[in-house]
Each structure stands twice: as C-alpha cells, then as structure tokens.
Specification:
274 residues, alpha/beta, 7-stranded mixed sheet, 40% helix, globular
Length: 274
C-alpha cells in the first residue's frame, strides 16, 4: 500500500521509458554541489536525493559526499539507476539506491546533511513530504528542490511547436483518461511558498542559474518525447500524435542541420535550511 499522500498515477507515469529518460534528460549541473555545500558550510557526510529517477542527479554527488542515497518509487527508473551503479564500481563505494516514498523516507531522523529533489518535487504531496524532509535533516541541513525550464532555450518557432505539442498531449489525456486516473503535479511556482509555509526551515530562498549541454536534433526531440504527458499519450493512443511529432522532428532537424550545439538550460532552485 502506498503511504498517504502518494499517488500511484504519478509513480506509474514514468513506467517503461527509463532508457529514453536517462539518455536524453539533462544531467544535474555541478553548480548544485557548489551552492549547497557552501550553504551547508562544508563537505556533506550524507546526501539523499529523493525522486531520483535514473540517478542523473544522484551520481553528481559521488565524489562530493561521503555517502549518497538515491530514493525512487518507480521500479523501472530505480532499475536503471541500479544498472548504472553496477557498471561504476568506484561510485558504488559511496552511492546506493533504494525504493521509497518522499513522505516515508528510509532514513534515520536528523541523519542527513543535504536532501535534493531534482525535477521531482512537483510530483510529491508537499506538506507531508516537507515534514518528512525536516525529520531527516540534521540541524543546519539543507533542502533543495531544483528544476529546469522547458523547453530548453533554442528558437521561437521550435519552442512554440514544443509548447503546442505538450498542450495537445494534455488535451488528449483529458479525453483518454478519467480525472481519477490522471497524474497530478503541484505548481512549481509555489515550491518556495510551500517550503516557507512548512515552518520547518529557518531560512528559505530561490536561486536562479543556468547550465549548458551539448545537444543535437536527436537529443532535442528525444528530450521532448521524454515528457511524461507525451509518453502517457503514446502508451494509450500511439497514433494520436504522429503528425505533430513528425512536424516537430522536421523543424528541429532543419534548425540543427546535423550540428551539435551548446544549448542553454535555465534552472530554478528553491532552498530551505533547517
């Protein structure tokens, strides 16, 4: 049974496309380590990355903390993280991955220096999750929920097409799935408000920064198709987005023209210190 506040639809939304997710999604920026370690005041002994997916944000810490644990409820995503860990013996010395839920963490109270949610906090019930995070953080510990903005910075026409494609997928889901069977996400713009409202943190703020990553047409399209709403539609009615995806793929290909470019990725981090 899921702990109260967890939604099976949110967890199942990511079943079956862990390979594409891991292949195309941005990796967590190294600046995250610098910022959070500075707020902590030194090297963390233990870091927990909750809603860690395939570990893109967990492996970041393998040399920056003494111990790192990735916690993920989805079995497919967790399996991919464990597969990657098995191929990296050096990382296995400090990293581990377990199945768990954001409001029922398998962690001892006041045992963690830093807790992160990368691209994941909006899928978690915020009140119970923040209470659990506060329980697990030591005094002075740091919590950070950070997300990148979609779409990645590129060009007006392609970004407009991206937004239309995401919008159509959401419209189709409203038809294909009863409301009770749809995933629910909380507004990212309210993350900071929720952190402050929890009264579990002595300090809270938002930090905005950017990163760049290499990207070609295949990756830009793959990243778009890795969005949960599109993936859900493709599972339920694969033919419904064929023409839209084809048009988007053509436009992206014409822009990149076989090139690999450095693409700007904007991030927003909401931070709380216990």
């Amino acid at each position: 049974m899921l702990p109260q506040g967890n939604r099976k639809q949110n967890i199942d939304r990511f079943l079956g496309f862990q390979n594409d997710y891991d292949r195309y999604r941005p990796t967590a920026p190294a600046l995250v380590i610098e910022v959070l370690t500075n707020y902590l005041g030194g090297r963390p002994s233990r870091v927990a990355d909750i809603g860690c997916g395939t570990g893109l944000s967990t492996f970041l810490w393998k040399e920056a903390a003494d111990s790192v644990i990735g916690i993920e409820p989805n079995t497919d995503m967790l399996g991919k993280a464990l597969e990657k860990l098995s191929q990296d013996p050096q990382a296995a010395a400090s990293l581990s991955f377990v199945q768990g839920y954001s409001n029922q963490l398998p962690l001892v109270s006041e045992s963690v220096d830093i807790i992160t949610c990368s691209q994941s906090f909006h899928w978690m019930e915020p009140v119970s999750t923040l209470q659990e995070i506060a329980r697990c953080l030591r005094p002075g510990g740091v919590f950070a929920a950070y997300d990148c903005d979609w779409p990645l910075v590129l060009q007006q026409d392609i970004e407009d097409q991206y937004n239309r494609l995401i919008g159509k997928a959401d419209e189709l889901l409203a038809v294909l799935l009863p409301e009770t069977e749809r995933a629910h996400k909380w507004d990212k713009e309210k993350h900071l408000t929720q952190i402050k409202a929890s009264q579990a943190f002595s300090f809270a703020r938002e930090i905005v920064f950017h990163n760049t990553e290499s990207c070609n047409a295949e990756r830009y399209v793959g990243l778009t198709l890795s969005q949960g709403g599109i993936q859900t539609v493709l599972k339920l009615d694969p033919s419904s987005l064929v023409q839209d995806i084809a048009a988007f793929t053509t436009a992206v290909g014409q822009y990149f023209q076989g090139r690999t470019l450095q693409v700007l990725i904007s991030y927003r981090m909401r931070l709380g210190i216990k």
